[in-house]
Amino acid sequence: MSKPFVSVERLTQQFPDGAGGTLTVFENATFGIEKGEFVCILGHSGCGKSTIMNILAGLAEPTSGVVKMDGFEVSGPSLDRGVVFQNYSLLPWLSALKNVIFGVKARYPDWSKEKVEDHAKEYLAMVGLDGDAIHRKPAQLSGGMRQRVSIARAFANHPKLLLLDEPFGALDALTRGTIQDELVKIWGGTEQTVFMITHDIDEAIFLADRILLMTNGPHARVAESVEITLPRPRSRTTVVDHPNYYAIRNHLVHFLGERSKELAGQDTGAEDNKPETIRLGQTGPRPAPEPVLEPEPESSGPDLRAVNQ
Ligand SMILES: Nc1ncnc2c1ncn2[C@@H]1O[C@H](COP(=O)(O)OP(=O)(O)OP(=O)(O)O)[C@@H](O)[C@H]1O
Ligand SMILES: [Mg+2]
């Protein structure tokens, strides 16, 4: 099989534990992301999600292991990878508009001043920011507004890989829904690939093609890759009625509630340490039901299959 667009191979991160020892946050984390895929990652606080994202962004180096994008090893930041940080770091001395312009100018050096500004404004408007607000500096904006500027800045640059670290955490439910929809629209209309960290299971199911599940740290790893077998376009109100929805949701809840702890510190056993692929529910038209000779209570549950990659 050919290599995926992004390939994370046996990534291990250790930090000094502050008491003279070593903390192994995650060990041999391995996964791939296909071009154009929307992948979410779920795991408990501290398992190393933000650290993995910083490594994917080229902003940090792992203790061991490699990340490759388009066949090349990631080393150092690049305009091909746009990041929305967990703490939405903006340049504090620039207005919201200038924060977005800054990136667009770097990405499209040939564009006229007007074109750059119009483009930046378009993306700010997309996340619901216009009027006076875009001329304010980050310190004069609310947390949710800062987060939206940060999202506009990343989206406006059309990076090949969009890295989002809990990008909607500071937003109210209504704004969150609107921006999720914008994200799906932007992603659906381009060749962009998205890797997103979230703590929100329903958000992950609504957005993702696949959800990676991490075990608890220390020595965390990516244990499962859950395919989201829900047709697109998805609507927030009807997606929950799909027969696969609750099978997927229950699986994720159980993983985070129990198995993330039970599996902690264990290897997959497979040589490459790749996550197990989980496909829940029906993916195509439902087959005719098999005649049941004896009542089997378990056969009424969702169809759960582990597929080895
Ligand atoms: N630069 C650093 N030096 C030492 N320890 C660090 C450093 N960065 C992260 N850590 C530790 O690594 C672990 C993973 O941190 P990380 O921020 O990646 O977790 P996370 O999965 O993103 O958590 P959350 O869901 O709370 O955001 C934590 O125990 C953290 O204290
Ligand atoms: Mg984090």
Description:
The protein is an alpha/beta fold and 309 residues long. The protein has two domains: 1-80 and 159-284 and 297-309, Rossmann fold (3-Layer(aba) Sandwich), CATH 3.40.50.300; 81-158, no CATH class. The chain has seven helices and twelve strands. The chain has helices at residues 49-57, 96-107, 113-126, 143-156, 173-188, 201-207, 245-262, and strands spanning 6-16, 22-33, 38-42, 64-69, 72-73, 81-84, 161-165, 193-197, 210-214, 222-227, 276-280, 304-307. The strands form two sheets. It has an eight-stranded mixed beta sheet, with helices on both faces. Strand 7 (161-165), helix 5 and strand 8 (193-197) form a beta-alpha-beta unit. The longest helix is centred in the last third of the chain and has 18 residues, at 245-262. It is globular. Mean pLDDT is 89; it is low at 295-302. Adenosine-5'-triphosphate is lined by residues 15, 25, 43, 45-51, 86.
Are there runs of 5+ residues with pLDDT below 50, and where?
295-302
CATH topology of the largest domain: Rossmann fold
* Amount of beta strand: 15-25%
Determine and state the CATH class of the largest domain: Alpha Beta
**Basic shape:** globular
| Biggest sheet strand line-up | 6-7-8-3-9-10-11-12
State mean pLDDT (0 to 100 scale).
89
- Measure the end-to-end span: 10 Å
The CATH superfamily of the largest domain is identified as P-loop containing nucleotide triphosphate hydrolases
Q: Multimeric state of these chains?
A: single chain
Biggest sheet character: 8 strands, mixed
Helicity range: 25-40%
Number of extended strands: 12
Radius of gyration, in angstroms, nearest whole number? 21 Å
